[in-house]
Amino acid sequence: MTNDRTQTRQLHYGTLPIGGGAPVVVQSMTNTDTRDAVATVAQIRALAVAGCELVRVAVPDEAAAAVLGEIKRQCPLPLVADIHFHHRLALMAVAQGVDGLRLNPGNIGGEVRVREVVAACRDRGVPIRIGVNAGSLERDLEERYGPTPAALVESALRHVAMLERFGFELIKISLKSSNVPDTVAACRLLATRVDYPQHIGITEAGTPLRGAIKSAVGLGILLHDGIGDTLRVSLTGDPVDEIFAAYQILGSLGRRRRGIELVSCPTCGRTEIDLIGLAAAAERRLAHIDLPLTVAVMGCVVNGPGEARHADVGIAGGRGSGLLFRRGEVVRRLPANELLDALVAETEALARERAASALTVATVPTPEDDCP
């Protein structure tokens, strides 16, 4: 895998850096009724706990726009307003203090209204994400190209040119299709044309398992190419699941690690314990750990510790008993019904040790600290 990221400009959503070599940012979108500020804030907080770093909310009408200020006051994350068709909603959102807008400049009423929105964003340092989807291309591009990567890129560049004419360059771009090859091709082409940050995702990817697989293929290719400054795994389900899937994709490519990486064998005829149940329970009970640790759940006491020798902590089960091990070295043998609890306890203890060690390193006095 290439370690090089495509070089893009850097901009900020609040204090969060995007592009310019900053880590790939994981984002999601609420599916609550934005007009219900209590429910929306509750979901945003759950997303933040899961590791979300940037959150977007739909703004379908003035009632939704009017509560953005209250949501922003309670929001632990930079807040992006998703606007379609009505430039007044964009102006209201900016006035309410959002950190970013997502809009299509071509569908909010012409250049005069776009200029108004741009002026408001410039005054407050609010970036605009230009979002182009294959299903909403301009008619002339649809007729000329069809819903192709070339059409997606041409549409984005058309909108970029409009904003640049108004002297506005706090721009992020997303090109999305439900077709993986088309999305990949469009994002690759765009990266050769401009250096604005890119948000990547596969739109309308589907239900959690199907959508995660589809997203992993598309986003994995792009991230491997060094393309992508923010990403969303779009799933038909709980947005919190999008965050888990996003970090799994990033972790698999070595881009970012958060939480437990579970290593478990696929089971075979030699398996003599409930390995499927053990692995599922371990994943569930260790979900609260956000430090990057590798945990193994193996079904063979003969080969398990060796096969998972790089795991921080692991268990390997056999008939009626199993082994608890660290980095491939056996710690002790346990009855099968004690393996899960032992694994959880050992992993939590290691997480506490690592956290304490990191805190100690961070607070070691420097020579400057000792100066009077």
Describe this entry's structure for a reader.
This protein has helices spanning 37-50, 62-66, 68-74, 87-95, 111-124, 139-145, 149-165, 180-191, 208-224, 239-252, 275-285, 304-307, 339-363, 367-370; strands at residues 11-13, 16-18, 25-29, 54-58, 79-82, 100-103, 128-133, 171-176, 198-200, 230-231, 260-264, 293-298, 313-317, 321-326, 329-335. By secondary structure, it is of the alpha/beta class. The protein folds into two domains: 11-252, Alpha-Beta Barrel (TIM Barrel); 260-362, Sulfite Reductase Hemoprotein, domain 1 (2-Layer Sandwich), CATH 3.30.413. The longest helix is centred in the last third of the chain and has 25 residues, at 339-363. The relative contact order is 0.09.
Strands, total number: 15
Number of domains: 2
Shape: elongated
CATH architecture of the largest domain: Alpha-Beta Barrel
Helix content: 40-55%
Low-confidence stretches: 366-372
Question: Would you identify the CATH H-level superfamily of the largest domain?
Answer: Dihydropteroate synthase-like
Q: Which CATH class of the largest domain is shown?
A: Alpha Beta
Chain-averaged pLDDT: 90
Distance between the termini: 49 Å
Number of helices: 14
Question: What does the secondary structure layout of this molecule look like, with pairings?
Answer:
Layout: E1 11-13, E2 16-18, E3 25-29, H1 37-50, E4 54-58, H2 62-66, H3 68-74, E5 79-82, H4 87-95, E6 100-103, H5 111-124, E7 128-133, H6 139-145, H7 149-165, E8 171-176, H8 180-191, E9 198-200, H9 208-224, E10 230-231, H10 239-252, E11 260-264, H11 275-285, E12 293-298, H12 304-307, E13 313-317, E14 321-326, E15 329-335, H13 339-363, H14 367-370
Helix pairs in contact: 1-3, 4-5, 6-7, 7-8, 8-9, 9-10
